[in-house]
Automatic annotation (TrEMBL):
Membrane topology term: Multi-pass membrane protein
Protein name, entry field: Amino acid permease
A Gene Ontology BP annotation from the UniProt entry: potassium ion import across plasma membrane
InterPro entries named among the record's database cross-references: AA-permease/SLC12A_dom, SLC12_C, SLC12A_fam
Residue ranges of every copy of the Amino acid permease/ SLC12A domain listed in the record: 121-294, 384-679
Taxonomic lineage from the root: Eukaryota, Metazoa, Ecdysozoa, Nematoda, Chromadorea
Region described as Disordered: spans on this chain: 1-52, 936-993
Keywords of the record: Membrane, Transmembrane, Transmembrane helix
UniProt-recorded Gene Ontology molecular function terms: potassium:chloride symporter activity
Length: 1071
């Protein structure tokens, strides 16, 4: 459990507030001032006089120790106030913090039962562990598996629960668990997803266990107490198949008992608790009767019940004895003179009467029964002993194939129930002391009982009789009951009442567990089960629990139900062990259990045993349990578990992330491991009423690139003072909106809202790019959208366009790859496109353009498009050879693409190139003037004087591309350049300026025009065009011309992705 520092006011503690805190007054006892917590001179924790200071002490005990301890007050006269000027109450105490469970607040208002170790943990746990399986299956296990393998089976079961008890003790004592029991402990340590999954499995375990106990009780009732109640007669008691008549009896009577128990539980928990002591007393007396019977049979061997044998065949007594004759007279009918016996033998061809014997089935400890019971037989279905087929109508046989793991699956439910003390945590006086002591003591006690009873059965009962599962050789009597002293009815009545009481306990606790899960509100479908009646009874949960228990009863025999119960409990125990191991290995600061006798290796061994038992007994059931757990986990994760419980899974994720980051070297990655780590930057205005489509489309584009499996960080630049509270609140709101939008477009990554002042954009960008990321996990690719330019804005220096140029410049100078989306408003979101994606191979960039196209094609949006690589060749290139080399290169990269080679002709510089270059110069000059208002005013005055001249004419010829560029600007600034501040009106001036143009700029403009013409001719109908982004200038002065070149290059192209690498991200052909 995590701890937090919580200030507690004196009014909450019931202490009158004094008028001052600096000295003792009439209203402030001197003891209160003397004993008040003092703040250490070094600013550390308050020092407590007399004993070491602890954060997790009990507040009530402190108040009882000294009512005036917390009279110390903060206020105007507080000596801390001059340094800490906040309006806060001084820290009187530090309370241990534990996350409240679903019923914590209601339970805290009620008076606790204050139970101790014996009544609160030890006896309830023993009552839950000792049950029907011990009475009707342990002796049969000894007869089938022998004492050696039975001890091994018990060792596996008890060792599994013992190790789990150690883990439970550690987890339960790590903090305060006021109520909520095992589910609270698991969920608060595993988190909402795993906690809910394991909680549901724990609920199902208790629900199905209800059915197991009831069917076990019906078996005792029909076979041993009232056999005449069997529908179909006593002769159908061996028909235990899935559709056998005895299985139908279990279903019918089990349903009747379930309805009866439903009525009792519906009346309230008080009626259930009234039967608990009765059930426990019956179990204890029955166990003592078994021990006493073993001793009595040893002291008086003739007192043991006899059985009839023919060689090694154990004969069913009902076939050789008349109705109404007691089993004690069986020897009178087990002789060669008994006509009924001889008739049955002659029918089967067994004519050797010398093999008939009536032997003592309970010879006692002094006999050789112990030696005979050491070995195993493991008979298959229909056999009376290993590899010997039985006559089902005459002798004892096995109704199921028996193996070691089959017996393990049947018997494991007998050792469950170790979490009972944890479920009682809300009523314990000192849970952190009672739970470890009581739970481990109860487990050790029951383990001793199981081992000792197995030894008693193996030493006092003959092996043939131990294999008689249903007591057919005893005229329908229970094998263990005939051993009991002084009378068999002590064990018969006690075992039946124990099953009835255990089923009541499970049927009572399961709905409350379901209500606790529903109250946590992590599984929306369970919301109706969080409601309770006026008597605080979860009636809705009781109804669904009864229905599930009825479905389990329909499975038939107890052995079938027990196998299902195993896996629910084993999954729960496995996760408890994993919790302890996880916390121990992580060594988190909040892992400080008071129970210190634990180790992570023991917990891992316990978890391993749980999974071993699951998969070794019924691997198919184990897979179903794991699948069910994972399904619930994914459901809770899908619905969004908005709970933060400081759980171990998140601690594991944090530790794993830290370990992985430390393993990644903060150096250049190998080209094989290179992947685009996106840093998505945008600085668009935010509005509650209007959503910017460019921003959402940019997120969609980043989501469509997620096939790269790289890091994605989305940063929004917000103008505002980072030190102002309003700006910080606005940034948090925007960040939440970004996270919501990222979730909507299924973009997994991180969102960040960055505040900057008007003159801080450049520094903020540089700082962000240099510092974002951790170690080797840092963004390497900038994803930007083409800006909207507003040259007439009074705030042009802080406009989106200016911010875009800053981003571009910063990315270039910091060695990042650049991906710029132009025409972002036309980019698709969820519409599946068909057509072509064209990658223009203008320069060798290491294949980054090709990689981006490949990643986009992995998205369902672009999957239907065909990839084309268009290589731009010059007149001196060998086109055929170039195409062949590209084809080989693409094949080695394992990318399917069509190769096209286009020649860039017309080397003559056109007049249009000069015109566009001149227009670019005018625009650049205008932008510089905009940044200097004085020079701008002078230029405007000069323009007005020129405009008054009579010889004015437009510089650009109508109909030329330059004219279109001047008059058309769309949202992304796609269709040309802005109109400059003034036009060149004098032909002489124009010719002079054309002659003075920089030849380099004219050549670049000419190349841009030729490439644009080539793109429009080949990709006019393509869905997307990817172009190499030309090298950006290192200095800001050249960015205006650079942007103009890009606009000309992509003029009238619908969707463009400009891509530029750094040369390090070379795509390799190796795997």
């Amino acid at each position: 459990m995590a701890f937090s520092v919580t200030p507690v006011s004196e009014s909450e503690l019931g202490v009158d507030q004094p008028s001052t805190t600096t000295a003792a007054t009439d209203n402030t006892p001197k003891a209160a001032v003397d004993n008040a917590p003092k703040v250490a001179e070094d600013g550390g924790l308050p020092a407590a006089s007399g004993e070491p200071y602890e954060r997790d002490f009990d507040v009530k005990r402190l108040i009882e120790r000294n009512d005036d301890l917390f009279a110390f007050q903060g206020g105007d006269d507080n000596h801390i106030s001059p340094l800490y000027d906040d309006n806060l109450v001084s820290f009187s105490i530090f309370k241990g913090y534990t996350t409240p469970g679903p019923l914590e607040r209601e339970e805290s208002k009620k008076k606790k039962a204050n139970l101790g170790v014996m009544l609160g943990v030890y006896l309830p746990t023993i009552q839950h562990i000792l049950g029907v399986t011990m009475f009707i299956r342990l002796s049969w296990c000894v007869g089938v598996a022998g004492l050696g393998q039975t001890f091994l089976m018990l060792l596996l079961c008890c060792l599994c629960t013992f190790l789990t008890c150690i883990s439970v003790s550690a987890v339960a004592t790590n903090g305060v668990v006021e109520s909520g029991g095992a589910y609270f402990m698991i969920s608060r340590n595993l988190g909402p997803e795993f906690g809910s999954a394991v909680g549901i499995l724990f609920y199902l375990a208790n629900t199905v266990a209800t059915a197991m106990y009831l069917v076990g009780g019906v078996e005792i009732l029909l076979l041993y107490i009232f056999p005449w109640l069997t529908i179909g007669g006593i002769e159908v008691q061996t028909h235990t198949g899935v559709f056998g008549m005895m299985s139908h009896n279990y279903r019918i009577y089990g349903t009747i008992l379930l309805i009866l128990e439903f009525a009792i539980v519906a009346m309230g928990v008080k009626f259930v608790q009234m039967l608990a002591p009765v059930s426990l007393i019956c179990v204890i007396i029955s166990i003592l009767a078994c021990y006493a019977g073993g001793v009595e049979k040893t002291l008086n061997p003739d007192a043991g019940q006899s059985i009839c044998m023919y060689d090694d065949h154990l004969i069913q007594s009902k076939l050789i004895m008349p109705d109404g004759v007691g089993i004690s007279e069986i020897c009178d009918y087990c002789t060669s003179a008994a006509s009924m016996l001889m008739d049955e033998l002659y029918k089967r061809g067994w004519n050797d009467s010398s093999l008939i014997s009536c032997k003592n089935g309970y010879p006692g400890f002094a006999s050789d029964a112990l030696i005979k019971n050491l070995g195993a037989s493991f008979p298959a279905e229909g056999e009376y002993v290993g590899h010997k087929v039985a006559d089902r109508t005459f002798e004892i046989f096995q109704d199921h194939t028996t193996t070691f793991f089959h017996l393990l699956a049947i018997y494991f439910p007998a050792v469950t129930g170790i979490l009972t003390g944890t479920n009682m945590s809300g009523d314990l006086k000192n849970p952190q002391a009672s739970i470890p002591t009581g739970t481990i003591a109860a487990q050790l006690t029951t383990s001793f009982i199981y081992f000792s009873l197995a030894l008693v059965f193996g030493a006092a009962i003959s092996p043939e009789l131990l294999r008689d599962k249903s007591g057919l050789s005893l005229n329908g009597g229970m094998v263990v009951a005939e051993l009991a002293w002084p009378n068999k009815w002590i064990l018969l009545v006690g075992s039946f009442l124990s099953t009835f009481g255990a089923a009541l306990q499970c049927l009572c606790s399961a709905p409350r567990l379901l209500q606790g899960i529903a109250k946590d509100d992590v599984i929306p479908i369970l919301a109706p089960f969080s409601k309770v009646t006026s008597k605080n009874e979860p009636f809705n949960g009781l109804i669904i629990t009864t229905i599930i228990a009825e479905l389990a009863i329909l499975m038939g025999g107890m052995d079938n139900i027990a196998a299902v119960v195993d896996f629910f409990f084993l999954m729960c125990y496995a996760f408890v062990n994993l919790i302890c191991a996880l916390h121990s290995l992580l060594g988190a600061p909040n892992w400080r259990p008071r129970y210190t006798y634990y180790h992570w290796s023991l917990s891992l061994l316990g978890a391993g045993l749980c999974f071993f038992i699951m998969f070794s007994t019924h691997w198919d059931y184990a897979l179903i349990s794991v699948f069910l757990c994972m399904a619930i986990y994914k459901y809770v994760e899908w619905k969004g578990a908005k709970k933060e419980w400081g759980d171990g899974i998140r601690g594991l994720a944090l530790t794993t992330a830290q370990y992985s980051l430390m393993k990644i070297e903060d150096e250049d990655v190998h080209p094989k491991n290179w992947r685009p780590q996106l840093l998505v930057l945008h600085s668009m205005p935010w509005s509650k009423e209007l959503v910017d489509i460019r921003y959402l489309n940019l997120l969609n584009l980043a989501s469509q690139l997620k096939a790269g499996r790289g890091l994605t960080i989305v940063v929004s630049f917000i103008r505002g003072d980072p030190t102002e509270a309003d700006a910080q609140t606005n940034a948090k709101t925007i960040k939440k909106r970004m996270e919501f939008d990222m979730k909507q477009v299924r973009l997994r990554g991180f969102a960040k809202a960055l505040l900057y002042n008007e003159d801080q954009i450049t520094g903020s960008l540089h700082t962000l790019i240099q510092s974002i990321g951790i170690g080797g996990l840092r963004p390497n690719t900038l994803l930007l959208s083409w800006p909207t330019r507003a040259p007439d804005s009074d705030e042009y220096a802080d406009s989106e366009y200016q911010t875009f140029t800053e981003k571009l410049h910063t990315g270039v100078n910091n060695g990042m790859c650049l991906v710029v989306a132009k025409g972002i408003t036309d980019f698709p979101t969820n519409v599946k496109l068909t057509g072509e994606i064209d990658v223009y191979w203008i320069v060798q960039d290491g294949g980054l353009c090709l990689l981006m196209a490949f990643l986009l094609k992995q998205s369902k949006v672009w999957r239907g498009c065909k990839l084309r690589i268009i290589a731009v060749a010059t007149m001196t290139d060998n086109n055929l050879k170039l195409q062949e080399r590209l084809q080989t290169y693409v094949y080695e990269l394992r990318i399917d693409a069509k190769i096209i080679v286009c020649e860039l002709s017309d080397p003559q510089i056109s007049k249009n190139a000069f015109e566009r270059t001149l227009l670019m110069e005018e625009r650049t000059r205008y932008m510089k003037q905009l940044r200097h208002p004085n020079s701008l005013m002078a230029s405007l005055q000069q323009q007005q004087s020129r405009d008054s001249s009579p010889d004015i004419e437009l510089s650009s010829t109508p109909g030329t591309p330059a004219t279109a560029a001047e008059n058309s600007v769309d949202q992304d600034g796609d269709n040309g350049s802005e109109k400059p501040a003034h036009s060149i009106t004098n032909n002489t001036d124009k010719e002079k300026m054309l002659q003075n143009l920089d030849p380099t700029k004219v050549h670049k403009m000419h190349t841009a025009l030729r490439l644009n013409e080539l793109i429009l001719n080949n990709s006019g109908n393509s869905q997307l065009v990817l172009l190499n982004l030309p090298k950006a200038p290192k200095k800001k002065e050249g960015l205006e011309d650079y942007i103009h070149y890009l606009e000309v290059l992509s003029d009238n192209v619908k969707r463009v992705l400009f891509v530029r690498g750094t040369g390090a991200e070379v795509i390799t052909a190796s795997s």
